[in-house]
Design goal:
Helices cover about 45% and strands about 10% of the residues. The protein has a 9-stranded mixed sheet with strand order 6-5-4-3-2-1-7-8-9. It is globular and about 50 Å long. Bound molecules: S-adenosylmethionine and iron/sulfur cluster (SF4) (2 copies).
């Protein structure tokens, strides 16, 4: 019930606040001069609250780096105050591993109180059994837990024995405290785990949590240079079977996905996995802002360099600046290394009429989380 009301509220806020920009962005994909009428008004700010990581994932470099810096509680609180004046609807905590922070509960509480936004966290789940109750008590709205296969495969990819068990244990605690909390399991689809996905989806379904997939990326600064030998799916038949399976799940068990997957999104995934990079205008810069552990600001893109720093300028000032506007246009034109971040949003906006038709049939498609 509460979830339904929240969804309605979000839809209303979205339509009132961003409908004009959404339509203009779509039109700009056909007639670019219209881009100058679109405002960069982020609805989501994601903060890298730590660079530390307790995992050893073979797909990611974060754990290999020696963290240079970590934001203090006070610095993050200052960011919340700056976010407040922007009318942001979603604040996310990512890392590194955000649950490594002992003040994570305090951060969630303050984020909600100061910004009024909904708050989510992306975690590897290793510390979830210890932290689950705190997250709930402090009012977290959405938890995404990364699991990369059934136990044996997950251990190979994540590099930590019992990662799978701990993540599942944490999810069970969250679910036992609240049946309404949005919980998602995120899996990066790889050669070693693609065939296990139906079993993993079944497990998620039984745990009453959603499941979603990431597409392997090597462009974001913390994924660059990872060794992808043996990770790419080189067999087209396996890819087709996987995508066809997702179509089937969409139909038969629509509750598995937080938002039903439109054919546009699934076909993008099929092409991407087959190494065909479909050309899309990237619209992420118009919706998301990222902050890293050095107070650098990114225009919703971890693959391009930062566009400002909060030690030198305010968040609003950066977002309203000419350089920011130029950057989001550059992103729109795909003058970038390209990546799979936010591809659902870009796919949907580049194909707005068919997305709208799909969403009319199934309002669940309107997706608000990361
Ligand atoms: C960088 S992690 C940060 C949050 C947390 N440490 C975690 O693992 O969930 C964010 C997400 O990126 C996913 N990921 C890791 N390596 C990736 C890669 N090379 N391409 C795409 N997604 C990746 C992770 O599985 C996780 O779901
Ligand atoms: S994906 Fe997450 S858990 Fe894995 S190394 Fe990267 S930051 Fe750490
Ligand atoms: S597609 Fe390009 S501009 Fe968009 S987020 Fe990825 S790297 Fe950045």
């Amino acid at each position: 019930m509460k979830e339904k009301e929240n969804k309605k509220k979000s839809l209303k806020r979205f339509l009132l606040g961003r409908a004009k920009d959404v339509v203009l962005l779509y039109l700009a994909t056909h007639y670019r001069p219209l881009l100058k009428f679109v405002s960069s008004k982020p609805s989501e700010v994601s903060i890298k609250v730590t660079q530390r990581c307790n995992s050893r994932c073979i797909t990611c470099n974060e754990w290999k780096e020696k963290p240079e810096n970590e934001l203090t509680t006070k610095e993050i609180e200052d960011i919340f105050h700056q976010i407040k004046s922007l009318g942001v609807e979603i604040v996310g905590f990512t890392g590194g591993e955000p649950l490594l922070r002992n003040d994570i509960g305090e951060l969630i509480e303050k984020a909600k109180k100061i910004t009024g936004a909904r708050v989510y966290i992306i975690t590897n789940g290793i510390l979830l059994p210890e932290r689950a109750k705190t997250l709930m008590e402090k009012g977290i709205d959405y938890v995404s837990v990364s699991i990369d296969g059934l136990p044996e495969t997950d251990t190979k990819i994540r590099g930590i024995p019992r990662h799978y068990d701990r993540a599942i244990e944490g999810i069970k605690i969250l679910r036992s405290v609240s049946k309404d909390l949005k919980i998602n399991v995120g899996t990066t689809v790889l050669k070693p785990n693609i065939k296990e996905i139906p079993q993993l989806v079944e497990i998620c379904h039984n745990l009453k949590v959603n499941w979603f997939f990431n597409l392997l990326d090597t462009s974001l600064y913390f994924f660059q240079g990872v060794n992808i030998d043996g990770l790419l799916i080189d067999d087209e038949k396996t890819i087709d079977e996987f995508i066809d399976y997702l179509y089937l799940i969409n139909k038969e068990k629509p509750d598995v996905f937080m938002s039903n997957m439109s054919p546009i999104v699934l076909e993008f995934a099929r092409d991407y996995l087959k190494n065909k990079k479909p050309k899309l205008n990237c619209v992420i810069g118009y919706f998301r802002v990222f902050v890293d552990s050095n107070l650098n600001i990114y225009s919703g893109c971890w693959a391009l360099p930062p566009i400002g720093n909060l030690k030198e300028e305010g968040l609003k000032e950066i977002i309203k600046s000419k350089k920011y506007k130029e950057r989001v246009k550059k992103m729109f034109d795909l003058k970038c290394p390209t990546c799979t971040c936010g591809y659902i949003l870009s796919c949907s906006l580049n194909n707005l009429p068919s997305t709208a038709l799909f969403a009319l049939k199934d309002p669940k498609f309107v997706r608000f989380e990361h």
